[in-house]
Automatic annotation (TrEMBL):
It comes from Lysobacter korlensis. This is Purine-cytosine permease family protein. The chain crosses the membrane at residues 32-51, 57-81, 102-131, 137-157, 169-189, 201-223, 243-266, 286-309, 321-341, 347-369, 389-411, 417-436. Belongs to the purine-cytosine permease (2.A.39) family. InterPro entries: CodB, Pur-cyt_permease, Pur-cyt_permease_Fcy2/21/22.
Length: 463
């Protein structure tokens, strides 16, 4: 047997499966997983977008409020994963149908690919700055490619190791972030940060800030059931992910807003969403935060993307993990050279909100109300059964999703609302799908889906 064949066989045995698992992780462990996951450069740099467009104190408040709103959706979807043992994209078969679920699955892969590109670029820029300051050599594209190549190798060979050490990396990152706060507030007072005048010409308003913060939570919700299905109980999943995600997002975005405000107070050039701008005054510690966060989080993003594709359709011959990982890995490495995406990051986040806020509204209605908290074992079948609908697609869910996505676009660019776009689009989708699914609710059995799926569930493959 060749080395490739042995590796392929090993990965097939040790990769995550889309089938249900019996969770065993405690509340602190789930909390640390979520704390580590979102202590990442993209979340940190998102905070740099908001100042000085909006006053610093208001930005911090909006970060807290938006995170809490988004976290409510995240933990609600994640709890479906805990109760069924299924990952997020497998759960979309419930409302969208066995074949219809391929629509959100495809959108998810595209979004995850975009995230992997953005993180690789930012890591490359930070690493390039450090190398250039010592050697004079500069090539951000080269360093982005090197960072993403390392991420792909870790996703194939070391994802379980990353999953185990990620909480410890979080502790290290939190220590460095504490150092950054100490430097910032020992140099300038909180009153000086609060006195930075808002510049409305930059195009950011409080409502747009709130929408972007909520969209960040929506972007993480695509992985909420993937993580929380390993929770020992609903309480462990809900409380652990709620606290972990909220703390990590508030800390990361606030340090980004604080760092860009520090640059402004120091009379420096404040370029938003630019690692060099905030690394320059804080030096190697912040560059280390960026590099470590990308290695940890982007590895899990790429791995999640591969497992999503491999497990897209239940009950049929799956794609093999290794060739799928190699193909998607090459695409992610090549895409890391497209630095123009960084200039469209806000649009990227808004697009995620438009695509997935309606999806999660539909999922919540479908599981908790229409199906009365029950997904039967039919959700694991490739054909026929309760989730086959019409030729494998629930066209009502697809239509409502399209309406919600269009509404999000309209509320963002054509008819802005006083509460932004994400919340109205979510609520509109929620109500519409509730109306079209009420007939199904009358025939749905009541009870806990975990009871019905116990015979199908297997022990979780890793801690």
């Amino acid at each position: 047997m060749s080395l490739y064949s042995r590796l392929d066989h090993y990965l097939e045995e040790h990769s995550d499966d889309a089938g249900p698992v019996r969770g065993h992780l405690t509340l602190p462990r789930i909390g640390m997983i979520w704390l580590a996951a979102n202590l990442v450069v993209t979340t940190l740099l998102t905070g740099t977008l908001f100042v000085p467009g909006v006053e610093y104190g208001l930005v911090v408040l909006l970060i807290v409020v938006g995170t809490l709103i988004g976290a409510a959706v995240l933990v609600t979807v994640g709890n479906i994963g805990t109760r069924t043992g299924l990952p997020t994209m497998a759960l979309t078969r419930g409302p969208f149908g066995t074949r219809g679920s391929l629509l959100p699955v495809t959108a998810n892969v595209v979004i995850l690919m975009g995230w992997s590109w953005v993180q690789a670029m930012l890591a490359g820029i930070a690493l390039n700055f450090m190398v250039e300051s010592v050697t004079g050599f500069s090539s951000p594209v080269l360093f982005a490619v090197l960072c993403q190549t390392l991420v792909v190798l870790l996703a194939i060979f070391g994802h379980t190791g990353i999953a185990k050490v990620e909480p410890w990396l979080a502790v290290l990152i939190l220590g460095i972030i504490a150092y950054i706060f100490v430097v910032a507030f020992s140099t300038y007072t909180p009153a000086q940060f609060a006195s930075i005048p808002a510049d409305p010409t930059l195009g950011y308003t409080p409502i747009l800030v709130l929408d972007i913060v909520i969209a960040t939570a929506i972007s993480w919700t695509v992985l909420s059931a993937d993580f929380n299905r390993f929770a020992r109980s609903g309480k462990a999943g809900i409380v652990g992910s709620g606290i972990g995600y909220t703390l990590s997002t508030v800390i990361s975005m606030t340090v980004g807003a604080t760092a860009i405000a520090f640059v402004l107070l120091s009379a420096g050039e404040a370029i938003p969403f630019d690692p060099v701008t905030i690394v320059a005054p804080f030096g190697a510690p912040l560059a280390l935060v960026i590099f470590l966060s990308v290695m940890a989080t982007n590895t899990m993003v790429v791995y999640g993307m591969v497992t999503t594709v491999v497990n897209a359709v239940p009950g049929v011959q799956k794609l093999k993990f290794l060739p799928t990982a190699l193909i998607l890995g090459v695409i992610s490495i090549v895409g890391a050279t497209w630095f123009g995406l960084l200039e469209q990051f806000t649009t990227f986040l808004v697009t995620i909100g438009a695509l997935f806020a309606p999806v999660f509204a539909i999922m919540i209605v479908d599981y908790y109300i229409a199906k009365r908290g029950v997904y039967t074992a039919d959700i694991l079948r490739a054909r026929e059964g309760r989730y086959w609908y019409l030729a494998g697609v629930n066209w009502a869910a697809v239509a409502v999703w399209l309406i919600g996505a269009v509404a999000a676009y309209v509320f963002t660019y054509l008819w802005p609302t006083p509460i932004g776009a994400t919340i109205p689009a979510f609520l509109l989708t929620f109500v519409l799908y509730l109306l079209v699914s009420m007939r199904e609710r009358s025939s749905a059995p009541a009870g806990r889906s975990s009871h019905l799926l116990d015979a199908e569930r297997t022990p979780a493959p890793h801690a």
